[in-house]
């Protein structure tokens, strides 16, 4: 039988033992039904520091060479003998305490056992089976350490020289030779972990097939529980809030909030350098005491801006204004805010539905600073966060009508790709998803496709301001229910979809009711999940999809 290991004994010098061992495993990971699986992480159980990732062709190479230095052996005042698999001690000491451990040739600990008050004449310690080939036995007895290489080759355990101390080599053998019992673990989000037992550390062309994780149906009764506990990844469930709406109906269902208006420029720096935070503070304080995360919204936006900013001129001047604003708000709330919408709605088209003439919106920031204002805003925010103890702060770009297949969504894809390729420090894309008049009505398929695109760039995706407007009869009630369900399901099935925020609690409070282009003309948009504090059928659709139903 071919030796299933590749181990070189480098040196055994009375005092210490050093060995080099090599793992060399190659293979391909495919998904059930066929097709290579990219970005699967492969590790070997119990071997730290060893991992590989599959490329686009599903192939991986796990190689590992390392030299192990064992503790220095003390002079053998103690003798160790093997009787079968029993390790016995003989010593003048009355009682012996310590630990016996065995390491494989690649330094994986195979066995460790503490012992105490052992009498030298007693039965001793029963050793387990080791990996074939070279192992290292380490005995710590009465605070002295003894090491010894052990070769496991054949069948029964025996000592090379009866009565030898562990400073001399002895052999252990059994008929299980070549049965390296180890496991390759393959992991990928959205797939069930795959454990593949191996019997060798030198294997080529191993084939591993992974099943996509089946959504398991859950029965959680709140949105936040279903979002965090069901499915294969956590989804934060968010609500747009104002200080007047901070109550238990929000905290019972949601674990994420976005201030609807309170952190916008006109409300935080209405006059230059005159920062006002009290409205935002009220939300942040309440959120903290209810264990709710906050998304700061938003740092750079052309709307709800302050007049003094809109009329400022000159690149350096407007860049300075933008920097000061970003740093002031991030500095004020620090890590009490979990993430920020750094730039909001920077793409324009001829219509709100996202058709025609997609281009950068000609805001004061664009006009005065130039097209690089977005990369600069993200860099300013990232540098400020990293140098002010906010390394985990997430930075997002947020926009509407980018979830459908339209000119705007296509344009944003190319722009975001350029940002990512040029190292702009962006963590994710918020799809506002104000669905219906005046914005687009996407299909679940188009949302899935857009989310998958940004996920493939390594970005998070969020549904950041969700409502589905029934005004103007552009969306039917039945369609609304279907979209709430199916788009939630898309998020559940996209590992990078990290949050869903609903833009308002009760229908009567929806901003759409009074926003002229939403076609409501003061009527109720019926766009949300609650009405007069009661859960609507739309709520059940979202909950069901989160529960995998
Ligand atoms: C809306 C608020 O809901 C309204 O109360 C306010 O009058 C106008 O702004 N895109 C965004 C949000 O990023 O900030 C907007 O919120 C809705 C559209």
Protein architecture, described:
By secondary structure, this protein is of the alpha/beta class. It is 23% helix and 31% strand. It has twelve helices and 29 strands. The protein has an eight-stranded parallel beta barrel, surrounded by six helices. The protein has a five-stranded mixed β-sheet with strand order 9-8-11-12-13, with no helix packed on it. Helix 6 (315-333) packs parallel to helix 8, helix 10 (444-456) runs parallel beside helix 11 (477-493) and helix 11 runs parallel beside helix 12. The chain is elongated, with a radius of gyration of 32 Å. Residues 1-18, 70-76 and 153-179 have low confidence and may be disordered. (3S,4R)-3-hydroxy-2-oxopiperidin-4-yl beta-D-xylopyranoside (XIL) binds next to loops.
């Amino acid at each position: 039988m071919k030796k299933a290991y590749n181990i070189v004994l480098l040196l055994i010098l009375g005092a210490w033992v050093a060995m080099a061992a090599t793992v060399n495993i190659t293979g391909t990971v495919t998904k059930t039904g066929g097709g290579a699986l990219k970005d699967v992480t492969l590790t070997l159980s119990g071997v730290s520091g060893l991992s590989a990732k599959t490329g686009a062709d599903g192939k991986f190479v796990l190689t590992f060479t390392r030299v192990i230095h064992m503790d220095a052996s003390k002079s053998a005042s103690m003798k160790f003998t093997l009787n079968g698999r029993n390790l016995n001690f003989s010593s003048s000491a009355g009682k012996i305490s310590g630990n016996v451990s065995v390491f494989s040739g690649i330094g994986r600990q195979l066995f460790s056992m503490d012992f105490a008050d052992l009498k030298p004449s007693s039965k001793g310690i029963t050793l387990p089976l080791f990996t074939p080939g070279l192992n290292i036995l380490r005995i710590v007895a009465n605070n002295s350490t003894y090491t010894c290489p052990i070769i496991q080759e054949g069948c029964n355990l025996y000592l090379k020289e009866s009565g030898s101390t562990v400073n001399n080599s002895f052999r252990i053998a059994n008929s299980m030779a070549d049965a390296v019992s180890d496991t390759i673990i393959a992991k990928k989000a959205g797939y069930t972990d795959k454990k593949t037992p191996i019997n060798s550390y030198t294997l080529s062309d191993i084939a591993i097939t992974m099943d996509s994780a089946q959504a398991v149906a859950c029965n959680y009764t709140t949105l936040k529980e279903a979002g965090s506990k069901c499915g294969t990844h956590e989804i934060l469930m968010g609500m747009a809030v104002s200080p007047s709406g901070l109550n238990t109906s929000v905290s019972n269902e949601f674990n994420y909030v976005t201030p609807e208006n309170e952190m916008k420029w006109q409300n935080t720096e209405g006059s230059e350098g005159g920062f006002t935070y009290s409205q935002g503070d009220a939300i942040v304080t309440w959120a903290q005491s209810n264990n709710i995360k906050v998304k700061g919204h938003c740092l750079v936006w052309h709307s709800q801006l302050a007049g003094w900013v809109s009329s400022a001129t000159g690149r350096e001047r407007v860049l300075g204004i933008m920097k000061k604003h970003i740093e002031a708000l991030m500095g004020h709330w620090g890590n009490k805010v979990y993430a920020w919408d750094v730039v909001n709605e920077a793409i324009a088209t001829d219509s709100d539905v996202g058709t025609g003439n997609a281009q950068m919106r000609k805001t004061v920031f664009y006009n005065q600073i130039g097209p690089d204002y977005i990369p600069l805003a993200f860099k300013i925010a990232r540098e400020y966060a990293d140098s002010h103890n906010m390394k985990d702060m997430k930075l997002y770009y947020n926009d509407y009508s980018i979830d459908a297949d339209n000119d705007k969504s296509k344009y944003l894809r190319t722009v975001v790709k350029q940002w990512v390729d040029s190292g702009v420090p962006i963590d994710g894309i918020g799809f506002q998803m104000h669905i219906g008049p005046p914005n687009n009505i996407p299909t679940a398929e188009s949302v899935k496709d857009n989310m998958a695109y940004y996920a493939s760039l390594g970005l998070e995706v969020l549904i950041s301001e969700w409502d589905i407007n029934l005004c103007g009869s552009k969306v039917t009630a039945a369609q609304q229910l279907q979209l709430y369900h199916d788009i939630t399901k898309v998020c559940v099935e996209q590992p990078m979809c990290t949050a869903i925020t609903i833009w308002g609690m009760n229908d009567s409070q929806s901003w759409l009711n009074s926003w002229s282009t939403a076609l409501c003309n003061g009527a109720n948009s019926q766009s949300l999940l609650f009405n007069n504090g009661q859960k609507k059928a739309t709520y059940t659709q979202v909950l069901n999809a989160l529960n995998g139903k």
